[in-house]
Amino acid sequence: MRHRLRFPYETSHQDVRIPVHGDLTLFARVWRPRTGEPVPALLEYSPERLTDTTVTRDAQRHPWYAGHGYASVRVEARGHGNSGGTPDPAGLPGGATALADAVDVIDWLAGQPWCTGRIGMFGLGWGGSCALATAARAPEPLKAVVAVCCGDDPHTNGGRYLGGAVLAESLHSASAALLSTGCRPPDPAHSGAPWRARWLERLETVEPAAHHWLAHQLRDDFWAAASPGPAAARPGPDLSAVRAAVLAVGGWWDPYRDTVLRLVGTLPPERVRGLIGPWSHQYPDHGRPGPAIGFLQETRRWWDRHLRGIENGVMDEPLLRTWSGDGTRGAGADGGSDDRPGPGAGRWTGTAAWPSPQVTPVAYELRGDPVPVASPQSTGLEAGPCRSTDGTTGGDQRADDACSACFEFPVAGEPVELLGTPRVTLLLRLGVPHGQAVARLCDVAPDGTSTRIALGALALSARHGTERAHAWPPGATEPVSFALAAAGHTFRPGHRIRLAVSSAYWPWLWPADDTAAGFVLVPEGSHLELPVRERRNGPSTAREPAPEREPEQAEPPLVGAAGTLEGERPARLLIREPGTGVHRSETVPVPGGTRVHPDGLEVTEEALQTWTIRAHDPLSAHALTVWRTRLHRPALPWDTTVETRSEIRCDADDFVLRDEVVCRDGREIVFHRTWEKRIPRLAG
Q1: Is the pLDDT reported for residue 674 higher than 60?
Q2: Burial 432-450 (b: 16+ CB within 10 A, else e)
Q3: pLDDT per residue as tens digits for the range 592-630
C-alpha cells in the first residue's frame, strides 16, 4: 500500500449537518479541494459511525478523492452516530426512510455553490446496496454509482436467507452488530449538550433486527417494501429505473458476488461495467486474499468519465472484467493449511457481453447407487465466516467432505475454466416433511487438499419457490434444482472437480427440525452443471483493473491500540466435547482492546460469538453474541458503555429469541431492556 502525501489539489475538511425530511439533520464530514471552481461531489452514506468506527478508512479515501478535485462526503444514516432521528428497526439499506434521506442529501449537495450539481455515490456492503437502491429512484443529480460487495435482493441476496433456508451465521451476526452499534450514543464532541437526550430517544425505539427478519421468512410484502421500485415478484431495486452509470464490484470470496453478474446482464451496456477480483468483503485496495488493486485510481477514472465528461476510454473496456485463478492451497509440511489461500497465480480476463457466448453450460452426470445422506449437525463448523473481510475462506474442506456424499470428475488434458453460476439438479427421496440440501463445489489438489469454490443450498420446503413453504410428501422422490454462488475459477490438469452434497451446514444454515433424518440421493437423474468458459491461449485482452497495480491511498490518522489484559484471542476457536456430542465454534467479530484516536476519543470494544450444536440434534442449535463497547473522552469528561447480548434458540415449532441491552452513562444505568420473542418456523 502506497500512502500518497502530495496531490494535485490542497484540501480541507469540515463537519456539517445536512437537513432531511422530518425536520432532522444528518451528520456529515466534507473533504473539498481548495479551488474557486465548483467540483463534482462523491457521497458515501452508511450507518457506520464516521468519528470512530470508520475514521481510518474514511481518511484513506475521502481526502484522496478531494486531492484529485472532488468534494468527497461521508454521511451517517439517520439514528446512527451523530445524526438525528431514530434508526430503522429492520436495518435494511432499501428502506423507504433511508432512501428518502439519501435523495435529500444528494439534492442538498447538488445545490451547494461549491458543487457542479453532478453527484457520484459509492459504498461497501450496506452502503453499496443503498447506492443501487437510490439509483433506482433516479434522482436527477445522481450520475454515477460504484457499488462494492453488496446485495441486490434483500431476501435472497442480503445475507439473511439462502434458497429459503435461514442463513444463521450471517443473519444473527448482522442483527447482533446492528443492536450494538445502534445503541451507541452520539459523541458530545460533535453533538454538543443534547447528546444524552438524543441517545435516550434513540434507545427507546431500538429493536433487534432479527425479530423483523425472522418474522418474514418467506418472500412477502415486507421485502417488497424494502425495494425502492414498484412491488415486483422479486424484491430489490427496480433496475429499469436506474439512469446513473453503475460500476459493480465484487470478490470471488464475497457472498454477494452474484450481484455483479445480474447487473451487467440487466442494465444497458452503455451504463454499466462489472469487476470481480480475488477478494473477500472489503474495498479492493484492501482486497484479500489478493492481489489487491489500485481501486481509488480505478474509481477515479469512472468518476472522471461520468461526472466530468472526460473521454478516458473507461467505457471502451470489456463489459465484465474478472480474475481467473486457481485460488487453491496445498498442504504444508505439517499436513495443515491456512484458511487464507493467499495471492495465487491467475490473470485478468475480459468479457464483451453477459451472458457470454464464450460460456457454455456443461453437465456432469452423477454416477453410482442411491446413497443416504445424513450429515452430522456439526458439518460446516470449519467452513469459516459466511462473510469474510480478511480473506478467510474456510481452509481444507476434507472434514466436511467426509460428512457429505461426494462425486468427482478428473481434469485431464486442458484446464477447465469456469465463469458464471454453477447449478445442481438432485433426485432426492425424503422420509420427513422438511430438510435441506447443501451443495459445495470443490477443487481437489493432487495431495488431496480440498478447496471450496462455490456453495449453494435449498430448504426443501422452498423447492417450488420462496413465497410459500411446501412440505415434502414423506417417502416421495422428487428432483430439485438450485444454483450455487457464482464462480470464476480454473481447475488445473491433475486436479479433480468435486461435488459434495450434505444435509446440514452449521452455522451457515439454521438446521431444519428434520435435518437429522437426511435424505437419499439418487445419482441417476442428478447432475452438476458448470459454466465452462472457452479458454483462449495468449495474452489477456482485458486491461489490468488499475493503471497502477499497487494500491494507493491518503495517509490515515495514527490510531493507538492497546490489547486486552487477557492477551490476544484466536479469531476462531473450535471446541468438541468428547462424550456429549457438543460442538462449539467461538469467533471474535472485532479486534479487542482499546483504540485511542488523535482527537482524544478512547474506544474499547470486546465481542464474542458462540455457535453450539449437538452432532445429531438439530434442535440443539444455539447462536449467542455478547458485545461490550466503551466510548470515553477523559478531557470532557465523558464515559459511556453499551453492553448487548443476543441469542437465538429453537424448538420444533418456533425460533426463540432473546436480546438484552444495558447502557451506562458513567456508573448510572440509563437504559436496560430485554426482548423475548417466539417466532413460528416456516423457512427450512
Answers
A1: yes
A2: bbbbbbbbbbbbbbeeebb
A3: 889 999 999 999 999 999 999 999 999 999 999 999 999
pLDDT (0 to 100) of residue 334: 31
User: Which domain, by its residues, includes 112?
Assistant: 2-164+217-242
| CATH number of 59's domain | 3.40.50.1820
Q: How far is CA 173 from CA 76, 268, 321, 651, in A?
A: 21, 36, 32, 20
Cell 462424550 belongs to 579
Distance from C-alpha of 425 to C-alpha of 509, rounded to nearest angstrom? 20
Cα(577)–Cα(189) distance, integer angstroms: 49
CA atoms of 223 and 165, how far apart (whole Å): 16
Tell whether 582 is covered by a domain: yes
For residue 567, pLDDT beyond 60: no
The CA R_g of the chain, rounded to the nearest whole Å, is 25
Residue 324, classed as helix, strand or coil, is strand
Backbone angles phi, psi at 139, to 5 degrees: -65, 135
Section 488-510 average pLDDT: 97
Q: Give Cβ neighbours of residue 42 (< 8 Å, ≥ 6 apart).
A: 62, 65, 70, 71, 72, 73, 119, 120, 121, 122, 303
DSSP 339: S
The model's pLDDT over 190-220, given as tens digits with 9 standing for 90+, comes to 999 999 999 999 999 999 999 999 999 999 9
**pTM, rounded to two decimals:** 0.94
Phi, psi of 472 (to 5 degrees): -80, 130
DSSP letter at 329? -
Rounded CA separation 522/429 (Å): 8
Between CA 473 and CA 627 the distance in angstroms is: 43
Lowest mean pLDDT among 162-176, 379-393, 421-435, 551-565: 551-565
Q: Are residues 442 and 590 in the same domain?
A: no
What is the total count of domains within the chain?
Answer: 3
Q: For residue 486, give every residue at least 6 positions away whose Cβ sits within 8 Å of its Cβ, in sequence order, or none.
A: 257, 258, 260, 261, 276, 420, 421, 454
Same structural domain, 604 and 501 = no
CA end-to-end distance (rounded Å), the chain: 44
Surface-to-core class of residue 162, CB atoms within 10 Å of its CB (0-12 exposed, 13-18 middle, 19+ buried)? buried
Determine the pLDDT at residue 390: 75
Q: Are residues 236 and 375 in the same domain?
A: no
Q: Does pLDDT of 228 surpass 90?
A: no
Where b means 16+ CB within 10 Å and e means fewer, 379-406 reads: bbbbbbbbbbbbbbbbbbbbebbebbbb
Using DSSP's 3-state secondary structure scheme, residue 506 falls into coil
* Range 250-266 average pLDDT: 96
Label the pairing between strands 165-166 and 320-325. Answer: unpaired
Closest CA to 541 of 343, 361, 344, 319: 319
In the predicted model, what is the mean pLDDT of residues 57-84? 97
In angstroms, rounded to a whole number, what is the distance separating the alpha carbons of residues 313 and 128? 24
- Provide the 10 A C-beta neighbour count for residue 279: 31
Q: 417466532: which residue's cell?
A: 679
How many whole angstroms separate alpha carbon 573 and alpha carbon 398?
A: 18
Indicate the Cα dihedral angle 612, 570, 335, 345, nearest 10°: 110
Q: Sign of dihedral through CA atoms 268, 272, 273, 275? A: negative
> Do 526 and 574 lie in a common domain?
no
